[in-house]
């Protein structure tokens, strides 16, 4: 299995495991953060992590997949910004292996940050300043002192900020207040954007798929809409990475009439439970094998992810 298909599977499985009716997750940025830790893992811990990150792919394919995408989206323009705030904090005083420090620097342009977890308030302050600065003050208060305890040795922080302008603008004059149905019995009045233009599009008996390009010409937002109303949860049961990629590949330029709501979603997740459900268990327990990071016993205390998307 290619790393692309495997990572799409990871995205779908993570979304299913998040246990939220409305969830916004950036699997790519979480994947990068986990891949950094994976680089320092061994034994059963490593196998469990690979099984959820990119089962069937090699280590080289996994690292090359992330490296290529990171290089494609490096930099910032007036039309496009993608900032991923990833950091791995380790208890100060632990002896870290030079080979691991060099590996994550080379592969992910990142590094470990020694910190004293016994000073919980100072840790939370330092982490939150870092995330706020990296995300242009859009994401604040990611970490609280509740996320830190006396056993904390390794903390993985992940936040993503994305800002992009549509290649084909929605005319503000055609934005109207309309009903948006959350369920069969509940609806909200929302600002509904409208456009009639050529977009990537495909459909089959079950779903319509729409691709909306961003100005950077590298990014697309794909929207999957079940043809049967309120059937998203049913559709999700059968969705996997191959299914997603096949539908995207089947999209062709088609003149369509598009209506989508303006929305802003901001969610914070503590992902340990979700990742355990997916099979990554040992990394969060005392028997975790991160012997390529340090000879000292290490396990991940928490994986905290926050993402903001505005359309």
Automatic annotation (TrEMBL):
Residues 12-311 form the Serpin domain. It holds the Pfam family Serpin. GO terms for molecular function: serine-type endopeptidase inhibitor activity. GO terms for cellular component: extracellular space. Gene3D superfamilies: Alpha-1-antitrypsin, domain 1, Antithrombin, subunit I, domain 2. InterPro entries: Serpin_dom, Serpin_fam, Serpin_sf, Serpin_sf_1, Serpin_sf_2. SMART domains: SERPIN. PANTHER family: GH10112P-RELATED (PTHR11461:SF211), SERINE PROTEASE INHIBITOR, SERPIN (PTHR11461). Belongs to the serpin family. This is SERPIN domain-containing protein. It comes from Dracunculus medinensis (Guinea worm). The lineage of its organism: Eukaryota, Metazoa, Ecdysozoa, Nematoda, Chromadorea.
């Amino acid at each position: 299995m290619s790393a692309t298909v495997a990572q799409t599977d990871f995205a779908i499985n993570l979304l299913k495991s998040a246990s939220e009716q409305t969830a916004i997750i950036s699997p790519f940025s979480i994947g990068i953060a986990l891949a950094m830790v994976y680089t320092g893992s061994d034994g059963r811990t490593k196998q469990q992590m690979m099984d959820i990150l990119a089962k069937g792919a090699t280590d080289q394919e996994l690292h090359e997949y992330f490296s290529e995408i990171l290089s494609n989206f490096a930099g910032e323009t007036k039309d496009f910004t993608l900032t991923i705030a990833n950091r791995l904090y380790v208890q100060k005083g632990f002896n870290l292996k030079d080979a691991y420090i060099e590996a994550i620097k080379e592969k992910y342009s990142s590094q470990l940050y020694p910190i004293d977890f016994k000073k919980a308030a100072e840790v939370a302050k330092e982490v939150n300043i870092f995330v706020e600065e990296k995300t242009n003050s859009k994401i604040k208060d990611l970490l609280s002192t509740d996320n830190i305890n006396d056993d904390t040795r390794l903390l993985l922080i992940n936040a993503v900020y994305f800002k992009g302008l549509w290649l084909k603008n929605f005319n503000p004059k055609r934005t109207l207040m309309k009903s948006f149905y959350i369920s069969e019995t509940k609806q909200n009045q929302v600002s509904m954007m409208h456009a009639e233009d050529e977009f990537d599009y495909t459909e089959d008996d079950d779903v319509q798929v729409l691709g909306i390009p961003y100005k950077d010409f590298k990014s697309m937002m794909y929207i999957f809409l079940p043809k049967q109303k309120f059937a998203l949860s049913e559709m999700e049961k059968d969705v996997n990475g191959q299914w997603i990629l096949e539908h995207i590949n089947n999209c062709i330029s088609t003149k369509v009439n598009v209506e989508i709501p303006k929305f802003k979603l901001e969610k914070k997740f503590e992902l340990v439970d979700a990742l355990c459900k997916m099979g990554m268990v040992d990394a969060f327990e005392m028997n975790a094998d991160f012997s390529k990071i340090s000879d000292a016993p290490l396990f991940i205390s928490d994986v905290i992810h926050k993402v903001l998307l505005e359309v």
